[in-house]
Write a structure and sequence with these properties.
four-stranded parallel β-sheet; alpha/beta; 4 strands; 3 helices; Rossmann fold; globular
Amino acid sequence: MKEKVVIYARVGSQEQANVSLDRQIDSCKSFAVKNDLMIKGIYKQVGASAHGTQEKFESILSNMYQSNVETLLIEDWSRISRNAIEAMEIENRFKKNNKSIVTVNGDKLLL
């Protein structure tokens, strides 16, 4: 059975939305196809700062549970947060709930 994933893409402004959101989503879709993953949803966030996104990820995590999805796909860690400590807190919350966050470019979260 294919692993189920959801995609998360975020940009800071409407001006970036047309190009950057599509690029992020396409990158994640290509990764999913290449790795035989089943995409169960796509989350887009426009005009939001990376700061204060804890609530957004709580909602995504809850939806992942309801849909029996194992993994959140992102282009890179800056899509979660540009603040490494906040990104680590979000990653730890996912791990505690037996969910994972995977970057399509293979980046590891570094402090």
